[in-house]
Batch of 2 targets.
Target 1
Amino acid sequence: MDTIHIRGGSALFGETRIQGSKNAVLPVMAAALLIRDVSTLENCPQISDVRHMLALLESIGCRVRHKGHTLTIDARNISEDTMSGENVTGMRSSITLLGAMLGRVGEVTMAYPGGCVIGERPIDMHLDALRRMGVAVYEKEGCFTARARCLEGTVISLPFSSVGVTENVLLAAVMARGVTVLQNAAREPEIVTLCEFLREAGAVIEGIGGPVLIIQGGHELHGICFRIPADRIVAGTYLMSVLGAGGNIFLEDAPVSQMRAVLRTAQEIGAQIHISREGLNVIAGGYRAPVPCLKTEVYPGFPTDMQSPLMAVLACVPGTSMIEETIFENRFRIVDQLRRMGACIELRGTKQAVITGVDSLLGAQVTAQELRGGAALVIAGCMAPGETVITNRHFIERGYEDICRDYQNLGANIRIG
């Protein structure tokens, strides 16, 4: 069945290893299309979004092999320029193949991407940026064709530092003629990872990690072996779990340098944080302070992907906390599910949630409606005495390799239904 069963109310103790990053591996897989050679990705997470992306790569002629946590992509022969079906409509990250396909073959027809229902996330900004590089777009019902006789380097200034648009411009620009200057580029760690992959493969990119990227296009790329970094959002999820349930856990390979905003918030709530070369030790269970006003922001601010997990914890923090969501307009879908478990949460429009801490959540049957909200319900289930049943497990599996295994390693009473 598509369910997770949790008997909660007990503190968490133990250690677990943090998987490879979902948000890093998907654009790197798209970038492998630009390489007329074989690329090997290590520490690749075994998640459903990776499987969807692999199916898309195979559908356009790539030969792929996924063994354990190692993924091999042979993109020497591309036979198709059309992508459709569930693998596109069911995964928002498929949009990164737009820039990659334009860079590789100069044309692509694809269905409008889908994914989690956390906001509209229109692709207009992607198309507008690519038009600046000489791309023509022809829209049809349910799909569109993008075509470029020759991609041209140019200056592009993004109205918002979008991760997805930054990825698409990068992927097109490394194959374009001339120099592309991307202003107001996203600075998320996943952008840095994509740039490092491309640079190791032979691309020339300056300004990595900053708001302005300078890409010298037209350099031939070659196959490489590349290791995917650990997932900062998965590490943050498990950190929030011990904040809510109490206990003492160790997160092996947690990418602490990418988690400063989350670690700072955790310490404000009352966590003891100990960082070592091997990972992150989190001790919780003492004084817990409310968060007067936390805003989600682009990196290096507090990540929108961590907003729902934080809300689950704040549901039992004494006092009144407030979260303001500035990235996606529909991130509060979890509120009704947490209310079923006894949380006291008031919504002020679509952007603010006021959380008044209760003594305890209660086990209940709840429904995951998107990836990070589903993970937050697992946190709530660990906090709540009694049994919690979470339906729609498949949403959680989009980004968590084996969430039940990891929580079992931390001492939780959790199983797949």
Target 2
Amino acid sequence: MTARILAIAGSDSGGGAGIQADIKAITCLGGFAMTAVTAVTVQNTQGVSAVHLVPPEIVAGQIRACIDDIGVDAIKIGMLGNEAVITAVADALDGVTVPVVLDPVMIAKGGAPLIEDEAVWALMQRLVPRASVITPNAPELSALTGTDIEDAADMLLAAQELLNAGPKAVLAKGGHLDGDELTDWLVTRQGHQGFSDARIATRHSHGTGCTLSAALACGLGQGLALPEAVTRARAFVRQGLQRAPGFGGGHGPLGFFPLP
């Protein structure tokens, strides 16, 4: 049976990130993508110029409509925007036991804020503890834990601190750290594991976090163990960077193709 993956995230009019990237990633990896749109953003490769949040009751309604009729095997959560939407999502998922991948989207690639400051507390209280895995980059991990992150040792310590907030696992992404090699760290209560590759030098990296978390949710929904799901999701993102179509004058989108 095809895995049913629900993506709860914002819409990117430029097609490179958000719900659009989620649908493409899930489809390329053999899943069936469903969506609950939390926000409509006006953006392209050069940045976000406006954000319109979807009413919380409509967000919750989308979630329930998908789960009650079609069913769900895994959930990816991305941009949420404010405390009211976070609360609506948490309430709508009450009793749902499938894997949840939480991508704590806070700042767009171009620097625009995508969540209200006061909503971070609600995120930590309502959604972080129920996540099967949370996928912060270094700035997001720093914001969630209140720690400075300058190297891999700092990242591992911060990831362990975030793990203490309740998620089953933390995938701390190392793309913002210096160096020619990029390492993501998977931290669980059983220990930690590094996933390393040579850095790909490109400006066409819009939507890497959205794509990774959607691909990870798809893998978990298809029954892959977490390390295997991480390995496949990272391979999918790397292929996307290598096969980027080169669109736009800013941070361009990835290329979306099935893995060989």
